[in-house]
Amino acid sequence: MKNIVILGSTGSIGKNSLEIIDKFKDKFNVLALSANKNINLLEKQIKKFKVGMAAVYDETLAKQLQKKCRNTEIYSGTDGIKKLCAFKKCDLILNAIIGSSGLKYTVESIYNRKNIALANKESYVMAGPILNDLIRKYKVDIIPVDSEHSAIFHLIKNLDSRKDIEKIYLTASGGPFLNKPIQEFVQITIEDALKHPVWSMGGKITVDSATLINKGFEVIEAVHLFKIGYQDIDVVIHPQSIIHSMVKVIDGEIYAQLSPPDMKFPILNALSYPEKLKNPFQSLDLYKLKNLSFQKPDNNKFPLLKYSYDIGKKGGNLPAALSIADDIVVSQFLERKIRFNDIFPGIKNIVENVKYMETPDLDDILRLEKEINYRFEIY
Ligand code: MN
């Protein structure tokens, strides 16, 4: 029996993971859950899985929930969520918090020597080298939940990433605007951006997929997770989203991982790792696949992908700035304050106003979030 803590249980990854856990009651036990503010769903989850401890980021909402869940200890705020990272009984923490704020809980989990199923890609984007040092020092396992990284994680298990790998092909669906002419980008609405052709996900990540910055983040994540260079990763547009990534070995062979575009696959994989469990969901029917196509991304239409590579290569505190800037600018877009075409210039403006630090420490990175938020969120 694995005791699991889920951070961000009311988001898309959190909901999917509880659906899986529900199918494997003899394998997994939910120890604690956290949510930002969706207390109605959290209450249902707490009752269904008989969860003893939970945390709600919003203090007022935490108090409301406590009245409804008398048998559950409800904590609040950053410190409340951090408490969930420290339970003695916990075997695995699933960090499914979206955005830059997830980093501090990844770090807290490492400090408590907990293995992490990591869905919060921003952790590696913001603090890749720092996380790698901490992981070595505290001897914890990080199992990626992001579908592409989950694929690569399994594909390269028997390879030496320093000498065997020639190229990693990170696949991307291309998002809703893959075939939209660039001239029409000025008219893109929120509704258009939220209509992802393949994946069903939360608002922020769906917009990130539409601008392709999501793929840019994933490139940075892969560099640190697999300890490879930026020149060794290519992004390949693969609209069917059946192949979740590929690895080209120096002997010329390419290994690929295939499954339906459903996050339950990489989540199940991460929760059960290193064990394999029989899949209770619909798996891939090869005979129903019509074609699998591949193309290069269009950097003119999607400048944030190339920009992410540039920022990743510059390193230091800039990838963290990129992640924080994206949180801010995408939320402005979702609040209808700016247009789709304003997202890239908005992000660039924030990143370029950050003072470059070559080797920031964790406090520098965490402070950066407060500094940028303070300067840019209040208008
Ligand atoms: Mn992904």
Index terms:
379 residues, alpha/beta, 2 domains, 4-stranded mixed beta sheet, binds manganese (II) ion
Brief synopsis:
The protein has helices at 12-23, 39-48, 59-68, 77-84, 103-111, 122-138, 147-155, 190-193, 203-211, 213-226, 264-272, 303-314, 318-334, 343-352, 362-376, and strands spanning 2-7, 28-35, 53-56, 73-76, 92-95, 115-118, 142-144, 165-172, 233-237, 243-249, 254-258. With 379 residues, the protein is of the alpha/beta class.
Structure, explained:
44% of the residues lie in helices and 15% in strands. The protein has 379 residues and is an alpha/beta fold. It has 2 domains: 2-140, 3-Layer(aba) Sandwich (Rossmann fold), CATH 3.40.50; 150-372, no CATH class. The strands form 2 sheets. Strands 4-3-2-1-5-6-7 form a 7-stranded parallel beta sheet, sandwiched between helices.
Lay out the secondary structure.
Blueprint: E1 2-7, H1 12-23, E2 28-35, H2 39-48, E3 53-56, H3 59-68, E4 73-76, H4 77-84, E5 92-95, H5 103-111, E6 115-118, H6 122-138, E7 142-144, H7 147-155, E8 165-172, H8 190-193, H9 203-211, H10 213-226, E9 233-237, E10 243-249, E11 254-258, H11 264-272, H12 303-314, H13 318-334, H14 343-352, H15 362-376
Parallel strand pairs: 1-2, 1-5, 2-3, 3-4, 5-6, 6-7, 8-9
Antiparallel strand pairs: 8-10, 10-11
Helix pairs in contact: 1-11, 5-6, 6-10, 6-13, 9-13, 10-12, 13-14, 13-15
Residues 146-148, 218 line the site of manganese (II) ion.
